[in-house]
Amino acid sequence: MSSGIYAQVPSSPIPMFTRPVEACIIPAAQYHHVNHNILWAILKVESNFKPNTVTKNENGTQDHGMGGMNTIHMASLAKHGITPSNIQDPCISTYVTAWHLSKVIAKHGNTWYGVAAYHSATPYFNNRYQVMLQNALIKAGVLTGKIKPVPPLKPGQLENSIPKAQNKMQAANAYNSSMNVLSE
Question: Coil, helix or strand for 113?
Answer without folding.
Answer: helix
